[in-house]
Fold this sequence. Notes:
Elements: E1 8-13, H1 16-26, H2 31-34, H3 36-40, H4 51-65, E2 70-77, E3 87-94, E4 102-110, E5 116-125
Antiparallel strand pairs: 1-3, 2-5, 3-4, 4-5
Amino acid sequence: MPAEYTPLEERRAFSQAEFNAFADLSGDHNPIHVDPDFAADTAFGATVAHGMMLFSAVRGLIARHYPGSRMLSQNLMFEAPTYAGETVRLVLEPLDRPTAGQLRLTTRVIKPDQRHGLTGECLLQLPEDHV
Length: 131
């Protein structure tokens, strides 16, 4: 398999300021994401990332490593909370070789304790020069 179809990984820590900015952008001001005092009294114990914020970071990694690709489908699950200041690993892993210009990837956000903040699978349509 060519090098560009091997697993990719990037480390990232999201800040509370980024949670707040994403809330402003998305309109989702759920206090579990933006109010540390409120969140402290929940089962999570602190604010947690918006799921779509995590996916946006994964989508950015896809765009940087597979420029010109189009996402045909994506499924997602958010299994564990991702906290501000927590360094996570964004991981893309091809499931097989590209077929008919399409590539299937697993998409994951892996927490320091190895739980997944996000797990899923996507299907990309690769540009002709990557087929």
